Amino acid sequence: MKKLERLNNPQISNAFEDIKLMIELVRDYTKGEYKEVPIGSIIAIQGVVLYFLSPIDIIPDFIPVAAYIDDLTVIGLVVKQVHNDLQKYKRTRMC
Length: 95
Fold this sequence. Notes:
The chain is mostly helical. The chain has one domain (14-94). It contains four helices and no strands. It has helices spanning 2-7, 13-31, 39-53, 69-94. Helix 2 (13-31) crosses helix 3 (39-53) and helix 3 (39-53) crosses helix 4 (69-94). The protein starts with a helix and ends with a helix. 19% of the residues are buried. The model has no long low-confidence stretch (mean pLDDT 84).
């Protein structure tokens, strides 16, 4: 949660919202509360969440500014891949 809070700033708010939504989707999928998502999307989302949370990065988190470039790049790639699934989940949650 600390890493997620550090990511929560106006310059990268979309990435913050995306990773938060992905964590919620995986949680709901795991609990069996939401199953309307392809297994490939779940695997990609779990991979990016694990990468984001992992202390081992391409660019270590203790390096100012550059620390989150790799995280944001990987998050962006996965969000692009699973965009439709995330939007469907988001709409379902709003109902």
